[in-house]
Inverse folding.
């Protein structure tokens, strides 16, 4: 398993975990109450700044989803619905009956799939810029189509801060093999799970009422990926949830405001 | 060598619009009456090709001003009835972009019947950017391709009872082709390759293998095919199992031929006008291939000249000729250039000739096709087989 390229995660441990025959890359760090972190299309490594701070208050479990990063993907896992069941198996294996669950972007969708299936499995739930609800209504798009954007444009729009290295073709081509491979695997997995229906499970909205954990939904005020109408759809899908909007943050709130987001998660989860 | 006339049937008036020619070009730039005039003109040229004894190749693309044929089979349905002798090649049908392969089989059978068994069928991967129009899943693309292939061949060649199909990607309660194809077990199948690796697979299957505008790489494609064919079938493949696609500009004098070539060159420059994110949708290429492509850089994919340098997109006619993508000159010149290329690549039996491309007008196209058919094609037909042990190293 390629782990040498995960410099940004050196504050924790990357290890291999066998989940019913699927080899998963598992990142663990910190001390405290268990927190299951579900990454977005930027991979576990894309949330390193957030996880570093969260590790002060929590024991973090952050797997690369099957197909992402260094995690294998069995052929029959190809929908986010499958990831929901996969994570329930993994939580059983790790003896995580009720962790704090945090998901960013695509990972927010994964979190919703887990908890609509087994609502009791989270002590607290934090969804950061979640995807997963229908992203458009016929001609009206509520979520930018990341597959239609150039790598540079996407890199620029994902956060208000500096874009990641992989969003510049020249820098990308100059990265070490293992890092390019990781990024290409992340792109491939994003396409597998999110190409069509675009970044959504059409049935999710009819299931979110099952989510009973105390829930907070976090958005970046300057999110250039999702529209106000989409945030409204999430408010309607989770009427009991707190909603918090961070200033000076784009879609990747975890990259733009890692310390403030970590503090908000810790406070919300009562740590 | 057999010669096939091919045109992409461009809506060339749009070439003046700045920016991309595919995926994102708004359709309001298309004057449908002008599109109709052009499409009818291109069909007239195909009919002329038939009269001149040439064969016919059509393709399809989507959301592209560079190619108005949005369905091989729609174009060929017309030509099946209006031509008499030409073999009719669809190269090709982008199989993994089609949601309904049984429908593909039905269209193949119908055109084969209409034409009296003159259809040849290219089943192709297609252009990556077309995933944005088909919206089919980019991942698992080739798995879907081969399942569709298996189903189509099973349907075309079925002489028993109707069957049902429960595959990973496609499900049918009953497959029953009315009509079924004239050519049995099925019309000749073509596939396209740009590397020896993919050509080997087609050699094993015994399908006709075409390589497009690949210049020196054609040699390794053909070598890969022959090697695998011999290993699988125990004999050398007939030459007509191999095909090469290039542009041809022929005229009575060189000056006219080069001016025709200049009119055709916008084929190359407009083909390159596509925003980069559409060239390689996430999940389309295997991860290993993406890593290699990124590290090799964009120039690695360009055809190369004899000096090893890539042809610039806006290269000169001479540079495109040097790379083996363009054959230009008098009938003698064109014959000599093709005979040399034929020798250098170890021999191939089909020239897929873009006899019209870019902005080349009707009168010039008519003259181009007529000269090739009357003065070049008969000599190409008489090209000797290449002794297989001969190895030319001049290319690449």
């Amino acid at each position: 398993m390629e782990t040498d390229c995960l410099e940004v995660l050196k504050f924790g441990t990357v290890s291999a975990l066998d989940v019913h025959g699927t080899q998963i890359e598992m990142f663990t760090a910190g001390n405290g109450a268990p927190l299951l972190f579900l990454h977005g299309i930027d991979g576990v490594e894309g949330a390193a700044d957030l996880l570093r701070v969260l590790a002060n208050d929590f024991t973090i479990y952050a797997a690369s989803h099957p197909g992402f990063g260094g995690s294998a993907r069995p052929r029959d896992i190809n929908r986010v619905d499958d990831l929901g069941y996969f994570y329930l198996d993994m939580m059983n294996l790790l003896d995580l009956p009720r962790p704090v669950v945090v998901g960013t972007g695509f990972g927010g969708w994964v979190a919703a799939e887990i908890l609509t299936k087994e609502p009791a499995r989270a002590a607290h739930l934090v969804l950061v810029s979640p995807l997963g609800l229908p992203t458009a209504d016929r001609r009206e798009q509520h979520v930018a189509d990341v597959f239609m954007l150039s790598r540079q444009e996407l890199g620029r729009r994902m956060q208000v801060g500096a874009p990641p290295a992989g969003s510049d073709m020249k820098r990308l081509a100059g990265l070490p093999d293992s890092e390019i491979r990781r990024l290409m695997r992340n792109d491939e997995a994003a396409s597998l799970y999110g190409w069509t229906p675009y970044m959504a499970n059409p049935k999710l909205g009819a299931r979110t009422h099952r989510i009973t954990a105390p829930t907070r939904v976090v958005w970046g005020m300057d999110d250039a990926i999702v529209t106000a109408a989409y945030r409204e759809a999430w408010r309607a899908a989770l009427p009991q949830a707190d909603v918090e909007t961070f200033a000076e943050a784009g879609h990747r709130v975890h990259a733009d405001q890692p310390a403030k987001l970590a503090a908000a998660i810790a406070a919300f989860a009562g740590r | 060598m057999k010669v096939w006339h091919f045109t992409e049937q461009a809506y060339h008036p749009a070439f003046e619009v700045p920016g991309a020619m595919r995926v994102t070009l708004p359709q309001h730039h298309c004057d449908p009456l002008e599109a109709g005039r052009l499409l009818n003109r291109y069909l007239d040229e195909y009919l002329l090709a038939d009269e001149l004894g040439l064969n016919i190749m059509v393709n399809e693309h989507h959301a592209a001003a560079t190619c108005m044929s949005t369905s091989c089979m729609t174009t060929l349905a017309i030509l099946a009835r209006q031509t008499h002798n030409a073999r009719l090649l669809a190269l090709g049908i982008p199989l993994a972009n089609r949601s309904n392969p049984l429908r593909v089989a039905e269209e193949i059978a119908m055109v084969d019947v209409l034409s009296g068994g003159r259809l040849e069928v290219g089943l192709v991967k297609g252009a990556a950017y077309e995933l944005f129009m088909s919206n089919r899943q980019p991942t698992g693309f080739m798995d879907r391709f081969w399942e569709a292939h298996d189903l189509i061949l099973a349907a075309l060649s079925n002489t028993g009872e109707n069957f049902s199909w429960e595959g990973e990607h496609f499900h049918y309660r009953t497959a029953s082709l009315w009509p079924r194809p004239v050519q049995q077990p099925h019309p000749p199948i073509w596939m396209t390759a740009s590397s020896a690796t993919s050509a080997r697979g087609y050699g094993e299957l015994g399908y006709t293998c075409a390589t497009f505008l690949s210049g020196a790489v054609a040699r390794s494609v053909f070598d890969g095919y022959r090697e695998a064919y011999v290993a699988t079938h125990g004999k050398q493949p007939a030459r007509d199992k191999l095909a090469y696609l290039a542009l041809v500009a022929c005229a009575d004098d060189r000056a006219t031929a080069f001016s025709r070539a200049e009119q055709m060159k916008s084929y190359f420059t407009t083909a390159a006008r596509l925003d980069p994110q559409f060239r390689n949708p996430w999940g389309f290429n295997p991860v290993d291939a993406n890593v290699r492509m990124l590290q090799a850089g964009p120039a690695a994919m360009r055809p190369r000249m004899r000096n090893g340098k890539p042809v610039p997109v806006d290269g000169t006619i001479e540079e495109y000729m040097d790379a083996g993508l363009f054959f230009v000159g008098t009938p003698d010149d064109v014959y000599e250039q093709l005979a040399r290329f034929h020798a250098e690549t170890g021999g191939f039996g089909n020239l897929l000739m873009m006899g019209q491309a870019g902005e080349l007008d009707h009168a010039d196209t008519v003259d181009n096709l007529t000269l090739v058919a009357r003065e070049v094609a008969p000599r190409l037909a008489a090209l000797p087989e290449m002794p297989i042990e001969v190895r030319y190293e001049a290319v690449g």
